[in-house]
DNA/pantothenate metabolism flavoprotein C-terminal domain-containing protein (Oryza meyeriana var. granulata), 772 residues
Amino acid sequence: MAADPSGEAAAFFRAAPPLRDRDRVAGELAGFVARHSGKSLAFFFPLLRSPVPQLCSDLRSAKRDGILMRVVAASLTRPCVVAGSGGGGLPGVVCVTSGGTTVPLEQRCVRYIDNFSSGQRGAASTEYFLKAGYAVIFIYRRGSKQPYCRFLPEDSFLDLFELGEESDIQVPDSHAAVVKTAISNYRKAIDEGLLLKLPFTTIFEYLQLLQMVATAMNCLGRQGMFYLAAAVSDFYVPWESMAKHKIESASGPLNMQLSQVPKMLFILRKQWAPSAFCVSFKLETDPDILLQKAEAALRKYGMNVVVANELANYKDVVVMVTSNGRTTVGRPSKEDDVEEQLIDLLSVSLWRFYDYNKREFEKGPWELILCNSVSGEDSPELLETR
Amino acid sequence: MAADPSGEAAAFFRAAPPLRDRDRVAGELAGFVARHSGKSLAFFFPLLRSPVPQLCSDLRSAKRDGILMRVVAASLTRPCVVAGSGGGGLPGVVCVTSGGTTVPLEQRCVRYIDNFSSGQRGAASTEYFLKAGYAVIFIYRRGSKQPYCRFLPEDSFLDLFELGEESDIQVPDSHAAVVKTAISNYRKAIDEGLLLKLPFTTIFEYLQLLQMVATAMNCLGRQGMFYLAAAVSDFYVPWESMAKHKIESASGPLNMQLSQVPKMLFILRKQWAPSAFCVSFKLETDPDILLQKAEAALRKYGMNVVVANELANYKDVVVMVTSNGRTTVGRPSKEDDVEEQLIDLLSVSLWRFYDYNKREFEKGPWELILCNSVSGEDSPELLETR
């Protein structure tokens, strides 16, 4: 790590071309964070061993000291432990970053260096965070995969639709269910104000957005989570030393020297949002160095979790690396998303992070844990177990 | 230019990772080209000075020597000269390339160099080529803009839809017309077999596809057109000298040396499809060198037309550079596409290319030129003028 990461970061931001729409973004962010600070949350863990519907209906109407428990019913068709918090205490807003950043090679940019990243991870995770009741700030690369749109046939959106006899829009039966579910889930997230989408393209835009979001979320304290799935460039050309025009191609081979991007994870943890729960990702193509690099990142940047994944099978399996050890997370089948289980387990980690593991609840055999912050203090109490 | 472009090209292809799905693509291509060889075509020029509907209905039913004239009625609401050809002689298939190619920096690719290109030009041009009656082979970058989808709000496809009370899919009134037109035009192109879409990502995939399409279209002779709007990398890392794994970021700044990509336009013109009508594009950010470079490309690669455009205003204005001089093409308003007029003018150039300009038809004041290849020879005859 550099001797002075703060100084390097400051120099990076000074020289970066300023973000367009900065004021509008700042306004949206402030409103979003204010709406979701101190919000109620329900957590679902894949551990419940008894039938759920009755618990669910009990829970839905459970009032305790005037606070209505919030239950995300969609999760209750599979075994889980349910734990709900009332006002405050548990994280309510997660910032998900997604897709790859670009590094322009010319100021009037024609060529740039890019990172492989479809945005699949971030888009899928956003869906599962929303399903679990979080509000999500989705910082995404323009053109990358979007929540609820992952099922779309690549580049052939129009293949999903046809015109009926009365010129009404129809979806072939083969796709009707999936399209309707997507529209309905997406509209719900937007209409309930649970999803804020902020696009970027370059490394300059990405890091400025991340700084804005992190400083805006700092007021949430431990209610804020960062889930940094974006593939961020390691090397860049400082704006001032960049070619103004398109590099000429007629004059033989091209030599380029790239500088290292300052390690902003460090700044995020130390300065921008020191209380937040931070999850970062480590992608490698060489499995021999992957876990070792993930553990180094955990220590170096003070992350709570580093999710290690290999390019060859990133959709199938990831390893969650924490200070307590490694947990391998695989998807049960090709029809499932590994992100579903990953976010369940992150919620467990989060719970641990807040020292709710006194009762070792994840070892069972509890069926239900119901937590609530009755007095509004920072630490919710355990109210009921059965 | 290199002393031996053919040798360089051969070396490039030998070392490139082989195209996946090569056999499937070859089969689709052969079928598409066979279906459209010797096809009838109608051309529309923006020169007609009298009312159109009557001519249109006359034309639609015009039979001459057993060949039904094909008329694209959608074009006939605005002034135009109509010229139709019967079997053979005029180009019927255009290969449109679109979007930017990537250059991998690692064999198991995480990082790559990319070119700025939304694919807007290629997608819009494909729509106007289809409207003018051409069959289109659309070689496009994965994730780039698609024909008839250009109107979509970026990254928020689902914003276009909502669910009605009976859970039917609805489009808000504000977007209904544009979505329905898009679905209807797209379905028509697909159902009539007029559009073949072939995706690429890397420079290796792109050039292999272009070679396959060009050699498949060579049998069309002068009926084939190339409209090369893709932003093709000038520099690349030869596959064999590429890092196998992700480049380490911990070891200071990165030095890269890139080689020049062989100039395939030259090979396309000389070897792959020597009879085709070739249109290439030149994009620069510096207007001072743009036209001079476009003219150099025209001579060097034997193009029929080079379309010069600047990054700053590529949607508003282009300059068509031919051996006869320069023609500036601008869009009448922000609601129009510059591609519409560009493709009208290309059809005029094409006509000249085939030496149909004996009558200087584009100077008017003719209202209608109707051409047909009665005997099936290569050169259609002028049958009727009024």
Q: What stands out?
A: The mean pLDDT of chain A is 77. The CA atoms of residues 105 and 111 of chain A lie 6 Å apart.
